[in-house]
Design brief:
By secondary structure, the protein is mainly beta. The chain has eight domains: 1-29, no CATH class; 32-122, Immunoglobulins (Immunoglobulin-like, Sandwich); 129-226, Immunoglobulin-like, CATH 2.60.40.10; 230-318, Immunoglobulin-like, CATH 2.60.40; 323-410, Sandwich (Immunoglobulin-like), CATH 2.60.40.10; 417-513, Immunoglobulin-like; 518-606, Immunoglobulins (Immunoglobulin-like), CATH 2.60.40.10; 617-658, no CATH class. The chain is built from four helices and 47 strands. The radius of gyration is 58 Å and the shape is flat.
Length: 659
């Protein structure tokens, strides 16, 4: 507003305007009553650590002034922000210092309005925690504690402890609060687990009974599934084949124990000094190549979180007689060209002597090496002369033992090879050859040829019986491919049927994907607008051809000598502003690797005809000029005649006389 002195300095006209505006403002102010609102209204509750904002706003005053205070003149513990007709008090974070009644004062000139709001606080931040005094062992008391952390006000707290739907204990914490603080409250109950408790759950429910306020959550709940334990019992040991064994033998002992959770099994052996040697943590203990010193007492214990239960068994290992073993076994099969090692071993003899021979007294054709209780015969590389039965003779003192091993041979070194007699073209016969190289014994060979899952040819070679040589065998088959064969797979399966021998692989196979080609056909040419054109026109000639793979399009022009002049590899050939020289035969060829399909079109370019309606600016000028010249010539003739009659001719005079 302006002062009195300022008004005196103003021009008279401005003073009048100013007075009128003051009157208008007073009228507007009277019409807009000064009002005040505060939100939230009356009371609000906030969780400790959260953010809360109180907003005071007015109407009917521009601009008001605001102030905030607590009803007991404590510090605000918040930040005030005034903006236009509103003022906001923000408490971030909310603490015990904010639990007051707050008053907002708004002043507008001589008017003052006040409104208050009560801020209540609470703390209920976490779900309850369930703690057990120990593992839940069947039949033994256990204490369950339910803890509710950082609660305020705790005198409104109620805690229920349940086992499924069965209430174990309830508590309300109604004792007076001596000071404002976050409290952790707990409820404990003791019960004895039973078999019926298996699979049940402990439930701790905490409720903050502040019904006069709306906030979430007012209830929190934690569930803990009951894991009931049963100490191990009824531990049992089974022994196979027996608790009395021969030296070098093997034994398997299996232990089981009842409990919850299922007990873990531990095997150990009692030592002579009274200590225990841990052997295994598996239910089954297998001892191989046992010696005399392996005799003794073996202990099995079932152990879980709440206890253990043990069982003992005594094993007796007896000295065994002199034994000869030959390996790999009574029969070995070897691929020609590989190496084979035959091993003859002795147990129960300190100083054995060895000798090797073939059963038909043929040369060994191998290298013998003897060391201690073991002798080896190495055949490298294995050939047809090694296909015998070999005998290992072991002498120990006066005793002599002999073991036999048969060496059988085979050759099956590579996968079959598939070859085609030519390109696969739909409708053209093709021969498939499946070759299996260097096979022995070839009389055991069978070759099968599949197309997809259907067998189309098979062959065996029984005529080669008793033939000792490496043979390459072939299966040939001719078929006519169709487009339906595309995507199918040719499979050549070769099997060596020597069922009495163990070797890998007994079958080999090769595959080849079929890609059937279709020679180009149904080649067509589309000419637009026509194959007969006037000179200067344009024409599009589009060619298409069917085939597999899709044919490549080649446009050519047939020359006078019959040769073809290549023009384009696009499906559409476009000629613009054609001339008569463009007339001729145009050739489209569809080409792929299976063949060529050809189509011709004759293009005729004609000369342009005169057009009666043809309009030319030059003709218009000529026409106009002629329309002027003819009258002029007539006038010249007229005046010339008159001049002849008078004896002279003057265009000026003639004009004058006419005028």
């Amino acid at each position: 507003m302006f002062s009195s002195q300022q008004k005196l300095k103003m021009p008279r006209k401005m003073v009048v305007i100013f007075g009128v505006s003051n009157v208008l403002w007073m009228v507007f102010a009277v019409s807009q009553a000064f009002k005040m609102e505060i939100s939230p209204e009356h009371r609000v509750i906030a969780q400790i650590g959260d953010v809360i904002s109180l907003t005071c706003s007015t109407t009917g005053c521009e601009p008001p002034s605001f102030s905030w205070r607590t009803q007991i003149d404590s510090p605000l513990n918040g930040k005030v922000r005034n903006e236009g007709n509103s003022s906001t008090l923000t408490m971030d974070p909310v603490s015990f210092n904010n639990e007051h009644a707050y008053v907002c004062t708004a002043t507008c000139g001589s008017k003052k309005l006040e409104k208050g709001i009560q801020v209540e606080i609470y703390s209920f931040p976490k779900d309850p925690e369930i703690h057990l005094s120990g593992p839940l062992e069947l039949g033994k008391p256990v204490t369950v504690t339910c803890m509710v952390p950082d609660v305020y006000p705790f005198d409104r707290l109620e805690v229920n402890l349940m086992k499924d739907n069965e209430l174990l204990k309830n508590k309300e914490f109604l004792e007076p609060m001596e000071r404002k603080s976050l409290e952790t409250k707990s409820l404990a109950a003791t019960f004895i687990p039973t078999n019926e408790d298996i699979g049940k759950a402990l439930v701790c429910q905490a409720k903050l009974n502040i019904d006069e306020f709306d906030f979430e959550p007012k209830e929190r709940e934690t569930t803990k599934k009951l894991q009931v334990y049963i100490s191990p019992k009824n531990t049992v040991i089974s022994v196979s084949p027996s608790t009395k064994l021969q030296e070098g033998g093997s034994v398997t002992m299996t232990c089981s124990s009842e409990g919850l959770p299922a007990p873990q099994i531990f095997w150990s052996k009692k030592l002579d000094n009274g200590n225990v040697q841990l052997l295994s943590g598996n239910a089954t203990l297998t001892l191989i190549a046992m010696r005399i010193e392996d005799s003794g007492i073996y202990v099995c214990e079932g152990v879980n979180q709440v206890g253990k239960d043990g069982k003992e068994v005594e094993l007796i290992v007896q000295e065994k007689p002199f034994i000869v073993e030959i390996s790999p076994g009574p029969q070995v099969i070897a691929q020609i060209g590989d190496s084979v090692v035959l091993t003859c071993g002795v147990t129960g003899c300190e100083s054995p002597s060895f000798s090797w021979r073939t059963q038909i007294d043929s040369p060994l054709s191998g290298q013998v090496k003897t060391e201690g209780s073991k002798s080896t015969l190495t055949l490298s590389p294995v050939s047809f002369e090694n296909e015998h039965s070999y005998l290992c003779t072991v002498t120990c003192g006066r005793k002599k033992l002999e073991k036999r091993i048969s060496v059988d041979l085979y050759s099956f070194p590579r996968d079959p090879e598939i070859e085609m007699s030519g390109l696969l073209v739909s409708g053209n016969p093709v021969t498939v050859s499946c070759e299996v190289p260097n096979v022995y014994p070839s009389d055991r060979l069978e070759i099968e040829l599949f197309k997809g899952e259907s067998i189309i040819e098979s062959k065996t070679f029984l005529e080669d019986m008793d033939k000792k040589s490496l043979e390459t065998k072939t299966l040939d088959m001719t078929f006519i491919p169709t487009t339906e064969d595309t995507g199918k797979v040719l499979v050549c399966l070769a099997q060596l049927h020597i069922g009495e021998m163990e070797f890998e692989p007994k079958q080999r196979q090769s595959t080849q994907m079929l890609h059937v080609n279709v020679a180009p056909r149904d080649t067509t040419i589309l000419v637009s607008p026509s194959s007969i054109l006037e000179e200067g026109s344009s024409v599009n000639m589009t060619c298409s051809s069917n085939g597999l793979p899709a044919p490549k399009i080649l446009w050519s022009r047939q020359l006078n000598n019959g040769d073809l002049q290549p023009l384009s590899e696009n499906s559409t050939l476009t000629l613009t502003s054609t001339k008569m020289d463009d007339s001729g035969i145009y050739v489209c060829e569809g080409i792929n690797q299976a063949g060529i399909s050809r189509k011709e079109v004759e293009l005729i370019i004609q000369g342009r005809e005169n057009n009666k309606d043809y309009f030319s600016p030059e003709l218009l000028v000529l026409y106009c000029a002629s329309s002027l010249i003819i009258p002029a010539i007539g006038m010249i003739i007229y005046f010339a005649r008159r001049a002849n009659m008078k004896g002279s001719y003057s265009l000026v005079e003639a004009q004058k006389s006419k005028v």
